[in-house]
Amino acid sequence: MVYRGEGKPDVLVPVQMAFLGFQKTINDASLGLIEKYLDQHQWKAGDYKVAIQACNDATTTAAFTDPAKCAQLAAAYASNLSVVSVIGYDSSACLQTVAPTLNQAPGGGLAIVSTEATYVCFVAKSPSACKPDEPAKYYPNGKQNLFMALPPDNYTAAAFAQLAKDKGYKKLYVLSHNQAYGIGLASLAASAAKQAGISVVRQESWDPKAASYRALMEQVKASGADALVVAGFPSDNAAQLMKDRAAVLGHGFPALMASPLLDKSFLDAMGPAGDGSFVLLETTPPDQLKGDSKTFFDEYSKEAKVDTAALGAYPTFAVATIQLTSQAIAESNGTRAGVLEAFPKIKVQDSVYGAPTGFTPTGALTPPPPAGYYAIDGGRLKFGGQVEYPAQLANDAL
């Protein structure tokens, strides 16, 4: 447990992330930023003293979030009534496992604020991306207790379609890993592209255990597609996928990649094979923010000797998460039920996103901040600009 305020803490907020594997560098920085924010606020949210506890949900075997470990941690949170909210979560698959448990936790349910998981079926219905019993199955007590501190996947899908349209691409080949996150995002991206008047020649998943993807890339070549959409994790053998893309389709063949692929080890492994590609972020990265938000990240980068700009939008999400959680605690009566009741009503006026920020009744962030993207050129990242989320296209993608 970490607490650097006066006296003893009143409430505890676990920060659950993968502190092993490819997410470690990002999540270590996210935790550090959360601590810095609490340092600046004397570890208080309104009248309540707040402690945090880092909880690792990865294993050395999986090198990423492990569902069994997620379930163990959820049971521990539920039984400890000093825990009034849980923040973090890298993995939508982990949240799918634990959401019903935390929804039925003693004391009226336990609030969850996602820092990275974006599975749209937690906050919306979608015939193309969700099962018929989603999202209801995640909320067996009927209360919305899961909130996203970043835009859900239908907004990312709309941004993919808008970026493809802005770049002049006409025919997309959509690829994903075989997990809920990638399949859901790929389905939504395909739907959004069609709504935007862009042809989708095929949508399929790649096998992360394959030794080569050249046959797959030959299919892409034969399809006449002029760009790829790639949704998955670095641990899904994504570097080999991109190398084979370059070998078959050429180094300049465009690939619009989802934000988890903004990972240094992946980019290093991919090398120049990534040239001509773009990594879409759900919001603006820290080095492109303005005013007090930029100052906050610049200070942390110097203090911790961490280049937050190289971590994409994840540091921004981490700060937004603790801002929103602190606001809910401040507006509550300090109990688990009170914090949960406060979440749908809060509005953070000085949000890191640069605009007053809160949640919809279904737990989605509102308003969604602009997306950002990096171009890969010469094996290096260059910030390409912002993409305003087309709200109607995001809704039409569902």
Write a short abstract of this structure.
The protein is of the alpha/beta class and 398 residues long. The protein is built from 12 helices and 16 strands.
What does this structure look like?
- With about 400 residues, the protein is α/β, with parallel strands linked by helices.
- It has 2 domains: about 10-150 and about 285-365, Rossmann fold (3-Layer(aba) Sandwich), CATH 3.40.50.2300; about 155-280 and about 370-395, Rossmann fold (3-Layer(aba) Sandwich), CATH 3.40.50.
- The chain has 12 helices and 16 strands.
- Strands 8-7-9-10-11-15-16 form a 7-stranded mixed beta sheet. Strands 2-3-1-4-5-6 form a 6-stranded mixed beta sheet.
- α8 (about 265-270) links the parallel β10 and β11.
- α4 packs across α12 (about 390-395), α5 packs across α12 (about 390-395) and α7 (about 240-250) packs parallel to α8.
- It is globular, with a radius of gyration of 20 Å.
- The mean pLDDT is about 95.
Feature tags:
Rossmann fold, 398 residues, 37% helix, six-stranded mixed β-sheet, alpha/beta, globular, seven-stranded mixed β-sheet
Number of strands: 16
Q: How many individual helices?
A: 12
Biggest sheet: strands side by side, in what order? 8-7-9-10-11-15-16
Helix vs. strand class: alpha/beta
* Residue runs with pLDDT of under 50 for 5 or more positions: none
Strand content: 15-25%
CATH fourth-tier homologous superfamily of the largest domain: Response regulator
**Secondary-structure element series:** EHEEHEHEEHEHEHEHEHEHHHEEEEEH
N-to-C span: 40 Å
